[in-house]
Design goal:
With 362 residues, the protein is α/β, with parallel strands linked by helices. It has 3 domains: 178 residues, P-loop containing nucleotide triphosphate hydrolases (Rossmann fold, 3-Layer(aba) Sandwich); 68 residues, DNA polymerase, domain 1; 64 residues, Ubiquitin-like (UB roll) (Roll), CATH 3.10.20.30. It is built from 13 helices and 12 strands. The strands form 3 sheets. The protein has a 6-stranded mixed sheet with strand order 2-4-1-5-6-7, sandwiched between helices. Strand 8 and strand 9 form a beta hairpin. Helix 1 packs parallel to helix 7 and helix 4 packs antiparallel against helix 5. The protein binds guanosine-5'-diphosphate and magnesium ion. The site of magnesium ion has 4 residues, from helix 1.
Length: 362
């Protein structure tokens, strides 16, 4: 499965509208706070000119772009961490995504109710952040209690973990997201079964009306910067309408240009998303396909292989790696191998953006 991004935000901020714009999937859009009962999942191809260039040498093979999966997550409201609204369902859905797109309402429209009565990006962002922090805190407190117990009965192994979670508890209760804390390599395994929500990378999306950037969206960009991430501005409704009425990509761009929009929301998101979410793309040319894949930066070769075939991680022997631009220069992996230009790596190899990888499995 591809990398998945969950759209989160208060009701009526335009999550489903933007989801539509992104996936053109036609999810149900209604002016009603709890309308998104089922998660809508949409898969979109990620355009990549490097894949096009590689494919030129393998024109008998199918070209398969990498994909991003978007999940339109059920409305999050104040109190969701305690099960208010669709709180529990929301939490189950957000656990499964790799990253969050935090949609913020930046358009004024008397016909579209706002849960808190007015447009206020800072307040809205803080409501969502607080719910996620509270949920994480609940899990952390449980951990601290059980670790305290173990430390008390003399379990020496529990000491480091206890101290780690005590430190986390302090930071999270002061409103700090876990993704922004410095966590030592040795401590990372402690977080594995907790799988905290505020550890997931976040990218903000300012949903502006048809006019484009405004005073509210500027605030969203500032708040994103303060949080060491980015924001993109999308005219949600306009783009979803364009998606529905245009036949192809070219027509889409022509329409958007008429409104002064040079890059579609999807293009902006992909560009900012790969950077902020620390994603890398690698390529494979084995079998009947030339294909692009998305993994997080720092992913080791066997886990990258597991994207292709689940048992590749267990059967991993080694991998042969070329840079995409070298492959395009020379034309085949065989030639690169003969020239001694293919690097061989073991299971500790971290996949780099632009790698062309041949997995050798047992
Ligand atoms: N005026 C205006 N209305 C919008 C915009 N984006 C979404 N809406 C409207 O806001 C309402 C709620 O949008 P929806 O996408 O269902 O919000 P969700 O609850 O966050 O999924 C719908 O009536 C949309 O048509 C926008 O950019 N401008
Ligand atoms: Mg919705």
């Amino acid at each position: 499965m591809g990398f998945s991004c969950g759209l989160v935000g208060l009701p009526n901020v335009g999550k489903s509208t933007i989801f539509n714009a992104l996936t053109a999937a036609g999810a149900k859009v209604e002016n009603y706070p709890f309308s998104t009962i089922d998660p809508n999942v949409g898969v979109v191809p990620v355009p990549d000119p490097r894949l096009d260039q590689i494919h030129k040498f393998f024109s008998d093979k199918r070209k398969v772009p990498t994909t991003l999966q978007f999940v339109d997550i059920a409305g999050l409201v104040k109190g969701a961490s305690h099960g208010e609204g669709l709180g529990n369902q929301f939490l189950a859905e957000i656990r499964n995504v790799d990253a969050t797109l935090h949609i913020v309402r930046c358009f004024e429209d008397p016909n579209v109710a706002h849960v808190d009565g007015s447009v206020d990006p800072k307040r809205d962002i803080e409501v969502i952040e607080t719910e996620l922090l509270l949920k994480d805190l609940e899990g952390i407190e449980k951990k601290v209690r059980s670790l305290e117990q173990r430390v008390r009965v003399g379990d020496k192994a529990a000491k480091a973990e206890h101290d780690f979670f005590a430190r986390l508890q302090q930071a999270v209760s002061q409103g700090q997201a876990i993704r922004n804390l410095s966590i030592h390599e040795n401590e990372k395994p402690f977080l594995k079964d907790l799988d905290p929500l505020t550890l997931k990378p976040v990218l903000f999306v300012a949903n502006v009306g048809d006019q484009g950037e405004n005073e509210f969206s500027k605030i969203v960009h500032q708040l994103a910067e303060q949080r060491q991430t980015k924001a993109v501005t999308i005219s949600g409704r306009l783009e979803s309408e364009v998606m529905e009425t245009s036949q192809d990509d070219e027509e889409r761009h022509t329409y958007l240009k008429e409104y002064g929009i040079e890059q579609s929301g999807l293009e902006k998101l992909i560009r900012a998303g790969y950077e902020v979410l620390h994603l890398v793309t690698f390529f494979t040319t084995d079998g009947p396909e030339v294909r692009a894949w998305t993994v997080s930066k720092g992913t080791h070769a066997p886990q990258a292989g597991a994207k292709i075939h689940t048992d590749f991680a267990e059967r991993f022997v080694q991998c042969e790696v070329a840079r995409w631009d070298e492959l395009v220069k020379i034309g085949s992996l065989h030639k690169l191998r003969d020239l001694g230009h293919l690097a061989r790596h073991g299971e500790k190899y971290e996949v780099q953006d632009g790698d062309v990888i041949h997995f050798v499995v047992a």
